[in-house]
Amino acid sequence: MRTQVAIVGSGPAGLLLGHLLHRAGIANIILERHTAEHVLGRIRAGVLEQGTVEVLDRIGVSARLHDEGLVHDGVEISVQGERHRIDFRSLIGKTITVYGQTELTRDLMDARAALGLPAVYEAEVVSVRGHDSGRPVVEYRRDGKLHELECDFVAGCDGYHGVSRRTVPAARLKVYERAYPFGWLGLLADVPPVADELIYANSERGFALCSMRSRTRSRYYIQCALDERVEAWSDDRFWDELRRRLGEDVAGRIVTGASLEKSIAPLRSFVAEPLRHGRLFLAGDAAHIVPPTGAKGLNLAASDVYYLAEALEAWYRTRAESELDRYSERALRRVWGAVRFSWWMTAQLHRFPDEPEFASRIQRAELDYLFRSRAAQEALAENYVGLPY
Ligand code: FAS
Ligand code: PHB
To answer: What is the pTM of this model?
Structure first.
């Protein structure tokens, strides 16, 4: 089998890249280790930057997003129960859209199927070779048999645990990493959100986040220790702890209900450079991970593949390598802007168990300055709604 671009992974990065390449007339095949249902069953991100929405508008895959997504003009930050609103629209004239990653992935899968574009599910890529010699071959296992896909380029969109980044010899990768001393315990429930906008809460007991997927489905998170097990958290225990991290006015309004999903995710900042390795390109979580505090992971996947599609389109048009060479530097500049912001949001809003009193005092000074300074609020707004592409 042969194609122009082999895409490893049918998450947001792979699916969006596939659509962008198709619109540029570049043939591509997506190889995904799991079933489509399994991919859709993962509960992940909830916030789309304005830039991500604009890319989806451009490729004509945003109808349901505009029908069902919730446009938010701002977010709230609660510190020891005192609430402060950051008004993106009045500060910088931009907004965010709350629309679950599951729904975005579904829309991209449906659009791909409607175009009759090839995606092979339950196809685990086991190796990528030849990407240094200009003749890449992707080997994958399906139905117990090994298959080969010859191509011009390989896009490693296979997430943090994928095979693509591991294909690159360690000596050729510079890895930057910070593991945070806590995780997030997330709960999804069919209950109305406690507020019209997201509430990020910094409390003595730890971080909490009140988010949503619609006006009838809510997504909540609480910071938890790394050694916590989700089995130790009944729904009631979760709701009680969540209430204790919010001010009384908010806690008193929370509508509780049975969880549809509960899971613990560790928090890390991770970047592997460079993103180009011969004919292999890394994009999305395969290249970088950010703590979800800044709502950036999914949105970085979108900007990576936007740049990669532009670079590949230029190569097929001119056979010049210049845009392909520029992809890594161009994508990483936006990646590091989001890594910095996600680190900053995480540092300001969480309890750091081993940090001295000084660090928590600095945290209070940062937040106090934020709430008093329009310039600081504009900076937060600019980063949260998404830095320019
Ligand atoms: P993905 O991981 O989504 O997709 C990679 C795909 O490649 C997967 O479907 C995988 O099955 C497939 N794959 C892997 N190895 C393969 C192989 N060898 N062969 C074939 N296929 C293979 N981001 C936010 O912005 N906000 C959040 O709240 C948030 N919450 C998160 C919670 C969790 C538990 C996790 C893990 C991530 C969260 N993220 C969040 C980040 C997340 O949304 C990612 O940024 C987003 O999924 C990135 O998309 P992809 O790069 O496509 O990677
Ligand atoms: C979510 O709704 O899942 C969500 C929203 C904002 C974040 C992280 C997660 O920063």
So the answer is: 0.96
